[in-house]
Amino acid sequence: WKRYLSILIPAEELERFPGSPEELYRGRRIRVTGTVTVSGEAPQIVVRSPEAITLLAPSSPPPSSVAPKRP
User: Model's pTM, two decimal places?
Assistant: First the structure.
């Protein structure tokens, strides 16, 4: 794995979502909360409820894990 993380929604959980996840989230900026696991050699997060996915505004900056430098 070098770059991508997969988000997996099991088929039995799809009815919990207000619509098709492909239509709801494709091309949108999202924040996913969950535990990263490895399937084969690829990292993934298994999402079991829509509450684990937050839609972000298109202009939202990505969260920073690095504190800004002080002068």
Answer: 0.72
